[in-house]
């Protein structure tokens, strides 16, 4: 996240979500606090990858062995891309004085509880002392698992005088699951500060006159894997910063003439006119209509970033007519207010 997030973009989705079409939805961009909060004392970061296990190729034959060999090569490239993605993200974070990528792999082993062993904590501490680091970010593991299928097909092939003729061929389809797990270690408190796993699927296909030639024709597989891996590295680094998230809220479009007319204004993106009509119905003779109108005004207030006002309208809606749905919305708004305050505090600390 590179820009200040003190505004909320309005997106309108006129999608009926009830069987009788009495409600529509609106999309709201919320500000979520960082998933990981680091101590202000952590200023110098080291990035490592752990030693990965090598697949035993002894029992594999033919095409399966060729794919496994290619996956082993791609895994190395993918790991480097993931680490560089994280490096770029952390270097752009003004909180850190230095971020270095340690070339040597760390031999980190884990106990039954999934926490580093005594030997591993000693190794982490030694790395930090040697390079004067406050914390270690680790690409704890990176795995690719590929399944493939083959089918016979027809394909065009040019002969010696460049005439194209239809010949028998093979089509190969590969589905690769890319998994990369990340951890943050505090060497002094001996805590794993965060642990997260990304999973991505990569699908590729190509044709060739033989299964092996079809495999060799998968030209874009490496580029796609590098892109996804680097994106995962960036995404992990972004867990240290507040981010935008889209939520959907329903609002009422039927129950009174004003509610129905307001919906036509919203379709034209004329929210001022819709709000004016809702305001009229806050004094409607029916409790149900007053409750629906106050609910709509709560959603609009949330949409424009006025969360305290949204909560006030939600309480008024519940007073006019109590419902489980309104009660849940009230609790949602309370949580949103708490998260928003934390996210703004985090942004202030980032100087944004």
Write the layout of secondary structure elements.
Blueprint: E1 10-13, E2 23-32, E3 44-49, H1 62-91, E4 98-101, H2 118-131, E5 135-158, E6 164-186, E7 191-208, H3 211-216, H4 221-238, E8 243-252, H5 257-267, H6 271-280, H7 287-303, H8 307-320, H9 324-349
Parallel strand pairs: 3-4, 3-5
Antiparallel strand pairs: 1-2, 2-8, 5-6, 6-7
Helix pairs in contact: 1-4, 5-6, 7-8, 8-9
**CATH topology descriptor of the largest domain:** Double Stranded RNA Binding Domain
| Beta-strand content estimate | 25-35%
CATH structural architecture of the largest domain: 2-Layer Sandwich
Distance between the termini: 11 Å
CATH class of the largest domain: Alpha Beta
Radius of gyration: 28 Å
The neighbouring-strand order within the major sheet is 4-3-5-6-7
Number of strands: 8
Mean pLDDT: 86
Oligomer: single chain
Shape: flat
Number of separate domains:
2
Count of separate DSSP helical elements: 9
* Helix and strand sequence: EEEHEHEEEHHEHHHHH
Describe this entry's structure for a reader.
The structure is a single chain. By secondary structure, the protein is α/β, with parallel strands linked by helices. The chain folds into two domains: 10-33 and 252-349, Serine Threonine Protein Phosphatase 5, Tetratricopeptide repeat, CATH 1.25.40.10; 44-238, Double Stranded RNA Binding Domain (2-Layer Sandwich). The chain has helices at residues 62-91, 118-131, 211-216, 221-238, 257-267, 271-280, 287-303, 307-320, 324-349, and strands at 10-13, 23-32, 44-49, 98-101, 135-158, 164-186, 191-208, 243-252. The strands form two sheets. A five-stranded mixed beta sheet has the order 4-3-5-6-7. It has a three-stranded antiparallel beta sheet with strand order 1-2-8, with helices on one face. A hairpin with a 4-residue loop joins strand 6 and strand 7 (191-208). The longest helix has 30 residues, at 62-91. It is flat. It holds the Pfam family DUF6340. InterPro entries: DUF6340.
